[in-house]
Design a protein that fits this description.
The complex is a heterotetramer.
Chain A (H helix, E strand, L loop, with lengths): L2 H22 L3 H23 L7 H32 L5 H4 L3
Chain C lengths: L1 H20 L7 H4 L7 H9 L3 E5 L6 E5 L1 H24 L6 H20 L3 H19 L5 H32 L17 H16 L7 H8 L2 H22 L9 H21 L4 H25 L4 H26 L7 H19 L5 H16 L5 H23 L9 H16 L15 H23 L32 H7 L4 H20 L1 H17 L1
Chain D lengths: L1 E2 L1 H19 L5 H27 L3 E9 L2 E6 L2 H24 L6 H20 L3 H19 L5 H32 L18 H19 L7 H4 L5 H28 L1 H7 L2 H21 L3 H21 L3 H32 L10 H4 L1 H15 L6 H15 L2 H27 L18 H19 L7 H13 L4
Parallel strand pairs in D: 1-2
Antiparallel strand pairs in D: 2-3
Helix pairs in contact in D: 1-2, 1-4, 2-3, 3-4, 3-9, 3-13, 3-18, 4-5, 4-9, 5-6, 5-9, 6-7, 7-9, 9-10, 9-12, 9-13, 11-12, 11-17, 12-13, 12-17, 13-15, 13-16, 13-18, 13-19, 15-17, 15-18, 16-17
Classes of the chains: A mainly alpha, B mainly alpha, C mainly alpha, D mainly alpha.
Chain lengths: ~100, ~475, ~550, ~500
């Protein structure tokens, strides 16, 4: 049970949590958060991947950095759209989910 | 000019243009947009020619080279997609100029603020650049980045329309994000297994083992979501249906092809080592389902743009029929030609829808009577692109379907053939249903006319879709000279 | 080349002359009169031109026209009949508003008639036969009275049937004999496939024209309805075309088991039946029509014998032609005579009466008339063929003829058709009288027995006397034909029923059953289901992605 | 030596004419008419050149590769010439007629544009050198004739157009399958007299029979074979010249012509016989003949009656094809021409009646013969010709069909011919009777024109085509007549003359 393995499996667990959240949640904000959780899981796994070798493999780091940037952009865009939707339509649910409750 | 410079042009021009347009702001955006479009398309076409002469090649940006640096590489497959993007992109840009001029006039007349229309240009050029990057990049991570660029700019473009487009954009975003996460997980599993991201090296190293299977599965699922293949298509119709006309055109014609392109790369190239025939059959089956489902849905629609959007769902399905037939000669050529001519005709259709909206103020199919007499060019464009979409001769759509059909029949897989033919009939049903109203009398009187640029570009694109009928042979030569795989 | 042109002119010209003359109808009154003479070229050709044929390969299916003995005989009496009828008719219809129209049909039919005679190949024959048949319709319905139109309907229906039978017959014969040229049609052995069909169709096709029982129904109606000169033509020329058809197509000179007896029987039925029914008519034209039916019965018998006894075929055919020749003039004269009874001057009436007696006697077969010669020829054939048994019944039939003739003369005396004949009518009438009187001089081989032995006199006379006595008895017994008359067209099948009535039908039925949309409720249900699936997919997006992933994994693993 | 230009021009000319006409404004009547006439008569000249060339043993052909092993091939052979000559002549007639018929109607540029395009497609079908090309132009024909059917733009017209598309596109789909399958099976092959499938011998029996069925079904739609004829009577809403063109030349004939190609030049009639597919085809055709005639009996609307008569008449061609033997082949081929001439005459006269007096139904035709003598004379010629009354063209066909049947020992065909002629008489003669021998019973529904008969420009083409129909009968055997060509083709197909 080396640290990388632990990190990796933890990341996998986080990923699965996020995935579950994404499946379960209807509220768009929750979904966005869930996706971010998933992202974090992915990055953890990447870092763990880098740590397998010594010196650490640079590429996964590069990927993580890029990934984080992307994730930030997307999240920002998502939140912007969400607020706009709430303003326009008064609901934080996607149309197909609204009629359910 | 050298091959590399073509490549640099193809990649750099749109991205550069996007930044410039953003800086220049409302006043000069469209001018910059057109200029960029000209350069970019010229570059990509030049690149295609270069490939057809010199074959595929790689280019290490900044001389770093893999694994650390970014390697660009282009082969016939990529070249075709690039050329397609270039040509259609140029037309879309020209159309957009006319479109937004009309919009502004409208806004000026009826004080309705339709958002900062000029933002279309930076985002559109960014989208374009993203697609080019995607086609040019030779390793999985660059592809991921390109996918995100495409996704983000695409979502922004959809949101431009405001109103119910916002929700659609959001749905698209959530699904796209989930998709790219699955994809990146897959990537990292592969990296864990083979310590490389480069497609070439992967192809050589890949072997059958569970983690690889999982990786392949995750990436496939993610890409299916992005390319809106049934049953992951549901986000597409509202998104494409509510976006502005040029945006819908770009998304339906070009963006959905990226996912398809990557899947082709992966399953027909990189993952070829894993026993793939079941997967290809699966993808084909999904495609078949998409053809039928999309057709039925399109038949239900009352609004023109929604109908066209659902027809995209169906047409994507056609492309995926390539996978089970890939082993047959000519199938790849056919599928590619189908993709190209679909890009042209679908873009043309959305442009027509835009022109109709501009003239009629709505796009309810039932009340479009006499648009043939009112806007003959648009009607002609609609008719021509319908022909290509249905797959009636002579047209690119026909040539492509013919190749797929004969591939299926040569392999004795008559059920694929049956689906292809049946889908054609469905397509005919929903497109000609609209077309019939072009002839209905009496013609409703309308004062507003669609800008010539819009009608003309749609007609030109539709004409190209027809002319693609004769592109089969050059395409075939290109693929076999350029060594697609 | 040149003499091809000349031959064409001589051998096809007569048939085309009547058509060529039609434009004259548009000319001034004096020129128009020339139309009445359209038959002259044909007559001249018949009398002067030597036998010969001309081939026109580019025409129809390779046409051939020519004069052989049969054609010449037919052309002689047909042409003179048309000529006389034309001259007579022109002035007969003097007051008629539709005279031009009448002559359009008249000349067309004339052209058809001559063409039929001159044609030497099946196709041309078929062409002109059709022309003759269809054009004659115009003659029948000329008066446009309801009777005329009804007669026309019956006539045209039978014509169509006849045309189709003829078509099939021609196809079969050409296929069996391997040639469309009469001269090259080989005799087909009785065993050849479909030969019986061919014979049957031929009998039907021409039996209709010739008025063979039971296809005769049109004849009394048409003769009654048509204007007198037209009736003369119908009875004199048209029905003879049927005979010509038989001569051209039937395999005379080879066995036709079954058919021969059938024809003889039918012929006898016609002779007696025609005579009896004719005797019970109240319209002189109808009576004459029935007499024609009965007379054609004799010819039918002859053809039957030709089929029964191949060796006797030539003689039989010749006899048939002679009989037709004689009957043509006599019957035509009777008809035309009916239109002359309105003569004003006493002398005129006397002459007309004489002019009625002559053909009447001839038809009854009185000595010194063409009838006697024809009948003796007929008997000679019977003897030669060894069918003497038929001699007596046929003589008895002559008695029937006498009855019909007396009936006709009686009816003619009180005929209503009484406007004084014009010069033209006289001219035509005299022409026919001459023809009728001189008819037997045309029979080269008949001159011999023109002076007849006593028993021949006897055998020619007793039927007439018998007929006279029957009439005398009937006279005393005050039989009234009003009680026991039979309407013209006796056994007329409900042919008119076969005429399609205009049934108003929803004519778009065909189309609409194809554009029927599915019922709205079903459509709504389908829509609902589809949209449900769509929404569920959207709600369970993540799940779908997971499932797809799992599926792919499984598929690779498998 | 093969000369590529003539066929290219022959196909391209109507295409360009059509495109240019689309550009024109509706009001440029003179220019458009000029273009139309130019196109029509230039085509006539071209056809003349081709006739002359082929007679002098020249070979016209051109091919363009679409994909490896997939060519669009145009080739001029005798059969093609027969069809293309017919279409060229009748196109010229119909063009003249249409110019007169549609003057001051709406959307004329559109109409004439598609009109030319449909001739472009027909020419392509005629000259097609292989099944693929034939299919391509066949589908084009479907598309370009649709706007003509719906030209009036009424709901009724649209419904008719829908029916038309339902049938033709479904047929096209089946066809696509069949053609592609055959292509996959036999590889790229050109039409060749005697067919090229015979080399399969006894392999793929089932598949070939299936494909034959598909091809017949696909082409049978346009040829209006029995279960597939539904569109034809409905398409009658189209303007008269369209009905004339569709029913006499372009669509229906294209179907029949294609079937001829399939049977003779793809399967080869002997091979088809050995597959045992000709018998059913013959039965189907025979049934269609009788069915069409029966339906025609009950139709009161003139054009519908004519349409059903077309359904019946076109199947004569197929019947002739399906009956093995040179004579019936001749009958079929020559009927291709004769039926065209007769039917176009009938439809154009119907157009005259509608245009001049507003007469659309049979029961309105009492005494019309006196009002429009020339038109009705032409009509009479057409009707009698259909019945098969000599010397009008129709009887030549029937003679050869009958002889062919007798030659093949299939006597029942003769029965069918006779029966159908009887039915023809039953639905045509009453019309003639009303027109000529009945007095006018009611005022004309909508008399648009006083004076003698119809407009000259409407009258001349009608009379001309009627004259042609009579001529084709009287001078049937003349050199270079349709019959001559038919014999030539038949001897080519059977290797021996009739």
């Amino acid at each position: 049970m080396t640290p990388p393995i632990i990190y990796a499996s933890a990341g996998a667990a986080v990923l699965c949590l996020g995935l579950f959240g994404f499946l379960a949640a209807r509220h768009v904000l929750r979904r966005i958060l869930a996706l971010n959780v998933m992202g974090s899981g992915v990055f953890m796994m990447l870092v763990a991947l880098a740590a397998r070798t010594d010196p650490p493999d640079p590429i996964p780091h590069a990927l993580v950095l890029t990934g984080i940037v992307v994730a930030v952009c997307v999240t920002a865009l998502a939140l912007a759209l969400l607020t706009r939707m709430c303003r326009d339509e008064g609901s934080a649910l996607l149309p197909e989910d609204r009629d359910i409750e | 000019m050298t091959q590399e410079s073509w490549m640099e042009g193809t990649l750099a021009a749109p991205l550069l243009g996007a930044v410039l347009a953003l800086i220049a702001g409302r006043s000069a955006a469209s001018a910059i947009g057109i200029l960029t479009a000209l350069v970019g398309s010229a570059a990509s076409i030049g690149l295609a020619f270069a490939v057809s002469r010199g074959g595929s090649f790689r280019y290490a940006v900044g001389g770093w080279g893999a694994p650390l640096g970014i390697d660009l590489r282009v082969d016939a497959l990529a070249a075709v997609m690039l050329a397609m993007t270039g040509v259609v992109g140029l037309c879309i840009s020209v159309y957009a100029v006319g479109y937004f001029r009309g919009k502004e006039a409208e806004a000026a007349s009826s004080r309705t603020n339709t958002g900062p229309a000029w933002l279309f240009w930076p985002m559109w050029l960014m989208l374009w650049g993203g697609m080019n990057a995607l086609y040019l990049s030779g390793d999985l991570f660059n592809i991921y980045v390109a996918l995100e660029v495409v996704g983000i700019s695409g979502i922004g473009l959809i949101a431009l329309a405001g109103g119910s487009a916002i929700a659609a954009a959001l749905r698209y975003l959530l699904l796209g994000l989930a998709g790219s996460l699955l994809y990146i997980v897959g990537v990292e599993l592969l990296y864990a297994g083979y310590a490389t991201l480069d497609l070439e090296q992967l192809r050589q190293r890949i072997d059958a083992q569970p983690s690889t299977w999982l990786a392949a599965a995750l990436m496939t699922a993610g890409l299916l979501a992005k390319s809106a293949l049934f049953p992951l298509h549901f986000w597409l119709p509202p998104a494409h249906g509510h976006a502005l006309a040029p945006v819908s055109a770009a998304l339906s014609a070009l963006v959905v092809k990226t996912g398809f392109y990557l899947l082709v790369r992966l399953w027909l190239d990189v993952f070829a080592a894993l026993g793939t025939e079941h997967v290809t059959t699966f993808l084909g089956a999904l495609g078949a389902a998409a053809v039928l489902w999309g057709g039925v849905q399109a038949l239900q629609q009352e609004r023109l743009k929604m109908m066209v959007a659902y027809s995209t769902v169906a047409q994507i399905g056609y492309l995926f029929m390539l996978f089970p037939l890939a082993s047959m000669s000519g199938s790849l050529t056919g599928a590619l030609l189908l993709a190209v001519s679909h890009a042209m005709s679908k873009a043309a259709l959305f442009m027509c829808a835009g022109s109709v909206l501009a003239v009629y103020g709505h796009d309810r199919i039932q009340s479009l009577q006499g648009f043939g007499a009112l806007m003959p060019m648009t009607a002609a464009a609609f008719a021509l692109s319908s022909i290509s979409l249905i797959g009636l001769p002579p047209s690119g759509g026909f040539a492509g379907k013919w190749m797929l059909l004969s591939a299926a029949l040569a392999g004795g897989a008559w059920w694929w053939a049956a689906i292809i033919v049946l889908g054609g009939l469905l397509t005919a049903a929903y497109l000609l249903r609209v077309l019939a109203f072009a002839f209905l009398e009496p013609v409703v009187a309308s004062s507003t006319r669609a800008p010539r640029a819009m009608e003309l570009t749609s007609l030109i694109l539709a004409g190209m879709a027809i002319a693609m009928n004769f592109a089969l042979l050059p395409l075939h030569d290109l693929l076999h000279a350029g060594g697609a795989r | 080349m040149n003499d091809t042109v000349l031959n064409t002119l001589l051998l096809l010209g007569p048939a085309l002359a009547p058509l060529a003359a039609l434009p004259l109808l548009l000319a001034g009154t004096r020129l128009q009169t020339a139309v009445a003479l359209s038959a002259l070229p044909a007559l001249l050709v018949a009398l002067l031109v030597p036998a010969g044929t001309v081939d026109l390969p580019w025409l129809l299916l390779g046409a051939r026209f020519g004069l052989d003995d049969t054609a010449r005989m037919f052309l002689v009496f047909t042409a003179s009949l048309w000529l006389a009828a034309g001259i007579h008719g022109w002035s007969y219809l003097n007051e008629d508003a539709r005279r031009q129209e009448f002559f359009v049909f008249f000349n067309a039919a004339m052209a058809g008639n001559f063409g039929v005679i001159l044609a030497q190949d099946a196709a041309s024959f078929y062409v002109f036969f059709a022309l003759l048949s269809f054009a004659s319709y115009g003659l029948v319905v000329h008066s446009r009275t309801s009777d005329a139109l009804r007669a026309g309907r019956v006539y045209i229906a039978l014509v169509v049937v006849g045309e189709l039978a003829l078509f099939a017959a021609i196809v079969l014969w050409v296929n069996l004999t391997g040639s469309i040229y009469f001269s090259e049609m080989t005799l087909v052995s009785a065993t050849a496939p479909a030969r019986n069909w061919a014979i049957a169709l031929t009998l039907i096709a021409f039996g209709i024209k010739i008025g063979a029982v039971p296809l005769h129904v049109w004849l009394p109606l048409a003769h009654t309805a048509a204007p007198t000169p037209a009736s003369a033509i119908l009875s004199g020329a048209l029905i003879k075309a049927g005979l010509l058809g038989w001569l051209r197509f039937l395999p005379l000179g080879s066995e036709a088991p079954g058919w021969d007896h059938a024809m003889i029987i039918l012929g006898l039925v016609a002779t007696f039946g025609g005579a009896l029914v004719g005797a019970l008519q109240n319209n002189p034209k109808a009576a004459l029509a029935y007499s024609s039916i009965s007379q054609m019965g004799f010819i039918t018998v002859l053809i039957g014998i030709a089929l029964a006894v191949p060796d006797a075929a030539p003689a039989a055919t010749l006899a048939a032609v002679l009989y037709a020749f004689h009957h043509a003039f006599a019957k035509a004269l009777m008809f035309v005579g009916l239109s002359m009874v309105g003569a004003t001057s006493r002398a005129g009436r006397a002459v007309v009466a004489g002019g009625m007696m002559l053909p009447a006697l001839a038809l009854a077969g009185a000595p010194l008339t063409s009838g006697a010669v024809a009948k003796s020829e007929l008997k000679a054939v019977l003897v030669a063929a060894g069918w003497n048994g038929l001699a007596f019944p046929l003589s008895l039939a002559a008695a029937g003829t006498t009855l019909v003739m007396l009936r006709t003369l009686f009816l003619a005396r009180q005929a209503q058709d009484t406007h004084a004949p014009h010069a033209g009518m006289w001219a035509g009438w005299w022409l026919l009288v001459g023809g009728c009187a001189a008819a037997n001089w045309f029979f080269p081989q008949a001159r011999g027995n023109y002076v007849m032995s006593l028993d021949e006199w006897a055998s020619a006379l007793w039927p007439i006397l018998l007929g006279l006595s029957v009439v005398a008895v009937g006279w005393r017994a005050k039989w009234s034909t009003e009680k026991i008359s039979i309407p013209p067209g006796d056994i007329l099948l409900p042919l008119s029923e076969m005429w399609p009535r205009q049934r108003p039908t929803p004519s778009v039925r065909q189309g609409h059953q194809n554009v029927e949309p599915p019922s709205p409720s079903a459509l709504r249900a389908a829509r609902a289901a589809i949209s449900w699936v769509e929404v569920t997919l959207a709600q369970r997006a993540g799940l779908v992605m997971v499932l797809v992933t799992a599926a792919v994994v499984l598929l690779i693993a498998s | 030596m093969t000369d590529p230009w003539i066929p290219l021009v022959a196909v391209g000319l109507p295409f360009l004419t059509g495109i240019v006409i689309f550009m024109l404004d509706d009001r440029q009547v003179a220019l458009r008419s000029l273009l139309n006439l130019f196109g029509a008569f230039a085509k006539l000249v071209l056809v003349g050149v081709m006739l002359w060339g082929v007679v002098n043993g020249r070979d016209y052909g051109v091919r363009l590769a679409i994909a490896p092993g997939l060519d669009v091939a145009l080739h001029v052979d005798a059969l093609a010439l027969l069809f293309i000559t017919l279409s060229a002549v009748l196109w010229a007639l119909t063009t003249v007629y249409a110019i007169g018929y549609l003057e001051n109607a709406a959307h004329r540029s559109r109409f004439f544009g598609f009109f030319s395009l449909s001739i472009f497609a027909t020419t392509g079908i005629a000259l097609a050198g292989n099944l693929f090309t034939l299919f391509v132009f066949y589908e084009i024909l479907t598309l370009v004739t649709y706007p003509l059917v719906v030209h009036r733009g009424t709901q009724k017209a649209l419904a008719a157009g829908r029916v038309y598309l339902c049938y033709t596109l479904a047929g096209g789909a089946v066809l696509l399958l069949a053609v592609a399958w055959l292509h996959a099976l036999a590889g790229p092959r050109d039409f060749v007299a005697g067919g090229y499938l015979r080399e399969f011998g006894t392999d793929h029996q089932f598949t070939l029979i299936l494909l034959f069925g598909f091809l017949i079904a696909g082409f049978g739609v346009k040829a209006a074979l029995f279960p597939l004829h539904g569109w034809l009577p409905v398409a009658m809403v189209a303007p008269a010249p369209v009905s004339a063109l569709l029913h006499a030349v372009a669509v229906v004939k294209a179907g029949a012509f294609a079937i001829i190609r399939v049977v003779y030049d793809v399967f080869g009639v002997e091979f088809a016989q050995s597959l045992g597919v000709l018998g059913p085809l013959a039965l189907l055709a025979a049934f269609t003949i009788l069915y069409g005639s029966f339906r025609a009996l009950t139709e009161d609307e003139l054009k519908k009656r004519l349409a059903y008569s077309t359904v019946s008449q076109v199947s004569y061609i197929i019947l002739g094809v399906a009956v093995l033997g040179p004579l019936s082949t001749i009958g079929a081929l020559v009927h291709l021409v004769n039926q065209g001439l007769l039917k176009i005459t009938l439809f154009l006269t119907a157009g005259n009646l509608a245009e001049t007096l507003g007469v659309h139904h049979v029961h309105e035709m009492d005494g019309v013969g006196r009002r429009m003598p020339l038109t009705m004379t032409a009509f009479t010629v057409g009707a009698l010709g259909m019945i098969g009354v000599p010397p009008i063209a129709g009887f030549v066909t029937k003679f050869y069909l009958g002889s062919g049947a007798a030659q093949a020992g299939q006597w029942w065909v003769i029965v069918v011919l006779v029966a159908s002629s009887l039915l023809n008489a039953c639905y045509f003669l009453p019309i003639l009777y009303r027109a000529w021998f009945q007095p006018q019973s009611a005022p004309w529904p909508n008399e648009k024109r006083e004076g003698f008969d119809a407009k000259a420009v409407l009258l001349v083409p009608v009379l001309f085509s009627a004259a042609l129909a009579v001529g084709a009968g009287i001078f049937a055997n003349a050199p270079f007549g349709p019959l001559e060509w038919a014999k030539l083709i038949s001897s080519r197909e059977f290797g021996y003359g009739p």
